[in-house]
Amino acid sequence: MISATNIHALADALNGVSLQLAPGEYLALLGANGSGKSTLLKALQGLIDIDEGQVSIEGVNPFADAETLEARQQVGYVQQRPDDQIVATSVEDDVAFGPENLGLPREELRARVTEALAAVGLSGFELREPHTLSGGQKQRLVIAGALALHPRYLLLDEPTSQLDPQARDEVLAILDAQVARGCGVLHVTHDLAEARRARRMLVLHEGELVFEGSYDELLRRAPEELMDWGIELEMPAHKRAVFVDEVEGDSALALSDVSLTYESGNQHVEALHNANLVLKPGEFILVRGATGSGKSTLLNLMAGFLEPSSGTATIDGAPLSLKTTRGQVGLSSRTAKLSSLPRPCSTTWPLGRATSAPTSRKRISAPLKLWRRSALTRSVLAPALRSSFPAARRAARQSRACWRSTRAICWLTSRPRRLTLPVAMRCAASWPARPRMPGCSW
Hints:
- The chain has helices at 37-44, 68-72, 91-101, 106-119, 135-147, 165-180, 192-195, 215-219, 223-228, 295-302, 322-325, 343-346, 366-377, 395-414; strands at residues 2-9, 14-21, 26-31, 52-57, 75-78, 153-157, 184-188, 200-205, 208-213, 253-264, 267-279, 310-315, 318-319, 329-331, 418-420.
- 29% of the residues lie in helices and 21% in strands.
- A hairpin with a 4-residue loop joins strand 1 and strand 2 (14-21).
- It folds into two domains: 2-236, 3-Layer(aba) Sandwich (Rossmann fold), CATH 3.40.50; 239-420, P-loop containing nucleotide triphosphate hydrolases (Rossmann fold, 3-Layer(aba) Sandwich), CATH 3.40.50.
- By secondary structure, it is of the alpha/beta class.
């Protein structure tokens, strides 16, 4: 059993949390962004120090140096960002990394890798390089790495946030199978439909455990209370898109029969095949597709970060490149810390300095500086976070910071006419409404 008693951590990020996870039990952990869910998972495995309280894994203290290895061998942990957990240069080596460090025989090691990859639907990807995988495929990869350990407990931090519906159902079926074989699962999610599968639900709010019970008991709580906890029963009206009229003219970002291929390991991968798309100012286009279908590749190509292998890509008639997209296209990537355009958010600059970044490339007037500063003023981030370093923020807040930083840098500096955004923005449970930006396409 994993047991936590009255734990406090990271300056009240956790404030007196107690819980127990037994083998074969399925717990769902819900709560608003910044409520302490990821911090709790790390504390349960001994990855961060706690200020007060006790944590034990099968009676073993994960914070005691002599017992750390024994405790962690029993727990598989899947982080919120797959890129933070991938360590090897091939898919099979990455899955083998954990079991190999347990000193398993070569035959058993290979059997575990094959079994784990088959469980998550990545058979045939053994020699692929992880950086060439899509976001959803990376998420499957780190789940496979955890399964290969044959853990007694699984701690998963939003393991389906970047998956398409079919892949999400497949991963949830894997979790059900793990519970059936006696594995204890603690699943962090914002999705009530996912959480409903759990035997018990826990809700964290501002570092405190405010609810523990069944799905039916949770729904009996007042709707206002659930909203305060970051639990939404349906999408509120203010989140729905606000459409604007298209801007007349010949301006457009156009792809014509664009294909993009690359080599990964000994495999020839075609990420895009004869893609055709025209995006005009004022237009709003939604791109959907299965995990690994090329959505992120398409956005990066439209922003000028990738070059097509064949076909033509133009912006306002000029060949698409970083030079021609500068000041015209803003890109907010799926993984906040890797976002390319809002550089201050992905390195070590405080958000308050993000508004100064473009001045070295382009002279801007005082009114535009005020516009950029106002973007931060209207930010959904707490005022105290505007001067904090991005690495110190939780994932959802980093995502918001990158989005606001993209607005400040790219829109308010050079007024781009196009913004490309990832489809998967589920980590932000209270994402702001699409702002009115006349003449800007999405």
